[in-house]
């Protein structure tokens, strides 16, 4: 089945996005309950404060949610739009759906004149880094940290909005 990308909150997406993250990062990097709880808690808080004209949620369905990307625009004009919860399942990984999701989120940011978009990730996710850099992100900060429940080399990437 060809994945369909939908925009906006859908019932069940919080649990499914948290599940995708928890399963993938437990298997690939040994993340545990602290990471899953952080994703579920912060994603829930985001969804409760979600403003469709300011924020974006994109879900890849095939037919259930198999990927997501979220753009938090709540502080976009001061600090930049925060790209979060970007993931695709093993079922869709490597088929271009991640690029499709990311492209839609960045087009949304650009249409709202958000001057900067940023994301936090960690060292060792080569395919994701390649995708970010191909979309104009650049690494601006790197240091050890434990915001995901285990010590990793955290990285902050930023993308400046294209000039008109």
TrEMBL record:
Domain of life per record: Bacteria
EC number: 2.3.-.-
UniProt xrefs under PROSITE patterns: GNAT
Keyword terms: Acyltransferase, Transferase
GO molecular function list: acyltransferase activity
Enzyme class: transferase
N-acetyltransferase domain segment(s): 4-158
Protein name, as recorded: GNAT family N-acetyltransferase
Species this protein is from: Hydrogenophaga luteola
